[in-house]
Write a structure and sequence with these properties.
- Keywords: Membrane, Molybdenum, Sulfate transport, Transmembrane, Transmembrane helix, Transport.
- It holds the Pfam family BPD_transp_1.
- Its main location: membrane.
- This is ABC transporter permease.
- By secondary structure, this protein is an all-alpha fold.
- The protein has one domain: Orthogonal Bundle (MetI-like fold), CATH 1.10.3720.
- 81% of the residues lie in helices and 0% in strands.
- It has 12 helices and no strands.
- The radius of gyration is 24 Å and the shape is globular.
- It starts with a helix and ends with a helix.
- 31% of the residues are buried.
Length: 273
């Protein structure tokens, strides 16, 4: 009799635990998905397509995609050798450099934008010398790219470093013993093996650059067709043209979903390989 009661209590505890976990997961998923779904429900397909032809949406979309692609190219070209060196070599000050690389992730975006302005603005530490040659960076499209590079580069560098560290050094050593130069070994062995992680890091960098707001508005301003990216256009149009704001928001949601799907697919293929 006591044994049956004990088993019934255990079953009751398991059922209560399962119910609690289900409610927790269900509540959290609703909290995440309902706001996203509401964006799609608040705008009809016809209105969405019509809003895509408005100048503010078109300009913001083209500018965001162009600057984000430029940001990724710069980060990949500069960040790949940095990541490889940090993954393979020990040198004095390495911890300090790692800390500096991670600072943009921790800094509030507004602080990042103000820091860039104090460095590259007309009267900034570097900008005042560039002004002597007629070079203006702040409140230009170049400022948008620099802001995106500043805030998104750690995402690629960290992922790339982890990918290089995961490559078996014995394979690289074997290639060198067979006569391959360090450059050939890197191009034929290291890069292909780390490619999955590098692509994932580049995609995450693109997504972070595309969604940048605080540093951009502080350093580049909010000028349509010149510095107004999609997040800035959403902020601006929400006050007067809600349909355009919703259209831009839906585009960013679709891109974000595609980014997450792409990263997971790439990492899964890399693990299988």
């Amino acid at each position: 009799m006591d044994l049956n009661r004990s088993e019934a209590l255990k079953r009751g505890e398991k059922a209560a635990l399962a119910l609690g976990i289900s409610l927790l997961f269900g509540g959290f998923l609703l909290f995440i998905t309902v706001p996203v779904i509401s964006l799609f429900l608040r705008i009809s397909p016809e209105t969405f397509l019509a809003s895509l032809s408005t100048p503010v949406v078109t300009d913001a979309l083209i500018l965001s995609l162009t600057t984000a692609v430029a940001c990724v190219l710069i980060v990949v070209l500069c960040g790949t050798p940095i990541s490889y060196i940090n993954a393979r070599f020990a040198y004095r000050g390495k911890d300090i450099i790692d800390t500096l690389i991670d600072i943009p992730v921790i800094l509030p975006p507004a602080v990042a934008g103000l820091a860039l302005l104090m460095a590259f603005g007309r009267y900034g530490i570097v900008g005042k010398y560039l002004s002597l040659f007629g070079i203006e960076i702040a409140y230009t499209t170049l400022a948008v790219v620099l802001a995106q590079v500043f805030v998104s580069s750690p995402f690629y560098i960290r992922q790339a470093r982890a990918s290089f560290e995961a490559v078996d050094t014995n394979l690289e050593d074997a290639a060198r013993t067979l006569g391959a130069s360090p450059v050939r070994t890197f191009a034929r062995i290291t890069m292909p093996l780390a490619a999955g992680g590098l692509i994932s890091g580049a995609v995450m960098t693109f997504a972070r650059a595309l969604g940048e707001f605080g540093a951009t508005i502080m350093f580049a301003g909010n000028i349509q067709g010149r510095t107004q990216t999609m997040p800035l256009a959403i902020y601006t149009t929400m006050q007067g043209d809600l349909d355009a704001s919703l259209a831009l928001a839906v585009i960013l949601v679709i891109i974000s979903f595609g980014v997450i799907t792409g990263v997971r697919y790439t990492l899964r293929r890399g693990d299988s390989a």
